[in-house]
Amino acid sequence: MNIALVKLSSIGDVVHALPVAAALHAALPQARLAWIVERREAAVLRGHPSLSEIVPVDTRGWRRARTPLAVAETTGALVALGRHLRASRFDVAIDLQGLVKSGVITAATGAPLRIGFSAAHCREGLNALFTNQRVAPPPVARHVVDRYLSLVEPLGARARAVEFALPTDEAADTRIGEFLMRVGLKPRDRLVVLNPGAGRPDKRWPIECFRSLARRLADEAGASVLVIWGPNELTDARTIVGTETPGHAILAPPTNLDELLAVLRRASVVVAADTGPLHLAAALGTPCLGLYGPTTAERNGPYGHGHRSLQSPDHTMASLGIDPVFRVVAELLDGPATDQASPESAR
What we know:
By secondary structure, the chain is an alpha/beta fold. The chain is 37% helix and 16% strand. The chain contains twelve helices and twelve strands.
């Protein structure tokens, strides 16, 4: 059986879908699994033991095509993709994205069985036009990971355990280890990693709140604080670290995916909004505190045991208080891991 998984983006969403590949491979070990994914997110899947093939696409680039040359290149890429999908002779395609663009790609696989969410559960209801077996996740499947896993049940698969497989790179681990040594961080140090970025402005906790949290973690909890950052986030990260009171936080170097994973593996606690680094850290088993405003922790919180979430009372990130965030991080630093908590008071 040839099975295509269609989950294009973003990094956090791709991480949440990883258990689907593991569940299918465990239930159908002879099946050939291919994952169709955006080129930027393909790195998350590198070396995945359940996948036979990764098929990168660039829908972002295709949508930006304006010049005749870019349009011609996009047309050529689409023709090549269609040819490749038809040659793969997929028996099944599973649309994990629930968008029109993922539905078009799902249909382009030519698979006779195309599984997706029912229209009421798709992010874009028209997606259901491109599938022919539609699944309504059971009410108990509140988290997006469990919702994705409901899509494998029509194939007789059921996850015995939720497994996340992420790439490792010894060279990246070495580079991060050397950086931490240079800035005076030792393996035994209690390291809190702060990630101030998010894909949407309304999902970001105010920078001054992160700055105050870093100061309190250093002064009151005796923690070492490392601030990580992504594209267009360096200025915010520098603001959190500050210059007039050195020692409260350390600025991380620029990181690729492998280096980011190396940082997250070494962290004692990760604090972040609903964004890719938070979900990468949770998948690695690093204790996390997720900060939630417009999105909900029940659906998108850090998945698994030992993590905590704080939900804004009015769904704005500015309403998340510094005191409760500090208390939860201190508890995660001092106490044993507990079961994943329900969203807690942010006041």
